[in-house]
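Incident log entry.

Two folding requests arrived from the same account within the same minute. Monitoring flagged them as a possible duplicate submission, but the sequences differ. Recording both here for audit purposes.

Request one:
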Amino acid sequence: MSVSTATGNFGNPAPTRRASARRVLREMRRQWTAYLFLAPVLLLFSLFTVFSVGYAFYLSFHQWNILEPAKPFVGLDNYARLIDDDRFRQAVVNTLYYTAASVPLTIGLGLAVALLLNNQIRARGIFRTLFYLPVVTPLVIASIIWKWVYNGDYGLANYYLMKFNLIDEPLLWLADPNLAMPSVIITSVWKGVGFAMVVYLAGLQSIPEDYYDAAKIDGATGWRRLRDITIPLLSATTLFLLVISILGSFQVFTQIFIMTNGGPLGRTRTIVWYIYTTAFKDFNMGYAAAMAFALFAMMLGFTLLQFRFLRREIDY
């Protein structure tokens, strides 16, 4: 056998690729019923996700106003406009502020509640249910309820704070520029603690009890067991919660739309809220699409940074 014949397949991988393609096509023909059942879902996904994202990317390069017939191509002008847009910069800052405050509070309180309810306490199931109820409450309803709680005239927040002499006069929670965003953050934390609790409970129950028994024999205190056993073994759970919580906080909209409508003075204007007003109030779809892809780039960047710096801490 000649050297060229023996090494022909390595020097020319095309036949191997063609053979692999033929095998894939042959397997698809054999399993055609599976693809038939998947076709409606794939069609819907292609139409409402793939096509929509592609078309939005196309819009971001045009001055696309619904009310005007002319929709000229403007290239990267929409993206360049983001740099000089003071309202967009304020929306980015407000979104980062919301994320930096709500995510650590939600995850920290979720861990604390999970540690408490992982113990054998009376009515543990009832307490778990009560903490999880806000999670299954529709966000629109939760926002309306908290808007009523924050009402400056008859809200429960002012009523109890004044009853216990913590304040002298009613606070305008959602109308005060310094209190509006913290009020929204409290609502979001109340809504999300239950989910973090359930995820952490699943992580806690996967930790073998042998580790804690060995630590007790060595004389480790409760704090040492938490620091050296529980928290390190929950690193994968924490990374999961961080990623999905930050992605969710970057897309905050419902609370803002119902409770503050971006005010007062734009102090609760977030990126998604600004995209919404630009697209459906100003009808500037091209610029809104550019902001949407800028938001996607920021979310992708934060996610990659988290995996880059936190994955090494995960114990497999």
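Request two (distinct sequence, not a duplicate):
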Amino acid sequence: MQLRASECSLWVKGKQVKAWQWGNGPTVLLVHGWNGRGLQLSPLIEPLLIAGYQVISFDAPGHGQTEGNKTHLTEIRDVILALSEQHGPLHAAIGHSFGVACLAAAVNAGLNIPNLIGISSPGGLSKLIERYCQAMSITPVTEDALRQRLSERLGAPLWQQFADSYPINHGVERSLVIHDKLDQVVPWQESERLALCWPNAELLLTEGLGHRRILTDQELANKITAFIDDASAKNSLE
């Protein structure tokens, strides 16, 4: 199947965000992670198109073809909200790594995503900072200062809500949390905790795919499509 995209770039708060659209039907949004890009999730597109969905993907600010050299959670959240307004309502959304946090932030800002899939998700903002500071050999004093700065940028309520996980209290009906047991970037136990605080969550663990190669596994792509299809079938019977 030849994947032909239509560009659907948009302006969000003064910045042009590169975005692409494939197919027709209920909309499925793809959200990449930190240092990723929209096409990183392209192996998921073909099964979704065959199943009759429209797929939307984008490059976050400072990533891929979107200009800039920095971004943050609430900026990507606002892109998700803008894309939903332009192409919604969303039937499902699939996030990878940091993209999962951005989707959760969009939901908690009022966006409805009936079917939410999170892949290789870090357990919370506090864990992200801890892991980053360990990798960079940052001192505890500097780490505390970084936490304070991020809390001020995001706002204390959002920081406190997402410090340990990404809880969702509304806007999602079913969720699928996926992680590889041999992920060397984010321990799979963080997704296990995430599944405990997402509505009607199913936890799917793989083995041997790692943090990024998990996105290229065709069997997993088919399972994600089947999960979304199952929701569509149930809705059609109601």
